[in-house]
């Protein structure tokens, strides 16, 4: 098996639903990060053998294989194919895995993996057209909303509302701190957008983090998914718009092209988990990927575990015994947003730059997924 490296990654700043990126078509937005990745790495577009993009709500502008249309918009040769995949919130992380597997197997040398989602222009579940779950499925499993699932996780692990709100507050604090210190500047592609007044401006700061939030403000929010529940809009991830991408290569090809990769992929894992609890998959995925890599959780310098809802990373911490000081150190989706199909490569890009910033060695990324699944990836900084 050949060694697979990540040459670089790039992302847009994440926009709130209905916010800064609301006027950006998804295919145009995806094309922006594809062009930026080529410009950063200075490779020829002809070298790319596939463009694999994650996108969850494949309808309207996000339908019709957005990976292919975005590549064409970005000026890639017609010989460069594209494919769009949906593994729910981990879609672009799975894009990394599929691309890495093709390279490791020797089928390809150069792949772009990425993702895009406009939750403004293609709202979540709009691709379902009002369809309900099959009776054959619901006769076998209790199929619930993800918010109800996170309520169940909070109850099972015994997390209080105060713990969840405190976690959310910390997510905002860390994100604001990272923005003020300029930690995201290198990874974010500046975009020219029209603001609400019609004026042109450069957009390159994530919209989600709130510097004025407080425990009092968070605790005043009403539960969303069940009466007397603990999950609110404040301790759940934000609906968002954004795009991201990473450039994958065989190590040999990177050397041939004179490129200096940022990291190599050490191990990949994907698991199925309880479709009712649904969001606990990162626990099993983490254990599996560590076993594949022959490493321990203590070997990791940083971990990114997607903050779909506050109970998800808290349960992950409890069961893995991981160090909370290494988790989502620059904030997570509760503060920074969760543009579904783009989140995997967004978090991977942030992990690459964070490891570089601290001169760390190993990083772990894990994302929970709808219907009970999770991906986990371990990278080593080069």
Automatic annotation (TrEMBL):
Residues 259-381 form the Thiolase C-terminal domain. It holds the Pfam family Thiolase_N. InterPro entries: Thiolase (IPR002155), Thiolase-like (IPR016039), Thiolase_AS (IPR020610), Thiolase_C (IPR020617), Thiolase_CS (IPR020613), Thiolase_N (IPR020616). Residues 4-251 form the Thiolase N-terminal domain. SUPFAM superfamilies: Thiolase-like (SSF53901). Its EC number is 2.3.1.-. GO terms for molecular function: acyltransferase activity. Keywords: Acyltransferase, Transferase. Belongs to the thiolase-like superfamily. Thiolase family. PANTHER family: ACETYL-COA C-ACYLTRANSFERASE (PTHR43365:SF1), BLR7806 PROTEIN (PTHR43365). This is Thiolase family protein. It comes from Ornithinibacillus xuwenensis. The lineage of its organism: Bacteria, Bacillati, Bacillota, Bacilli, Bacillales.
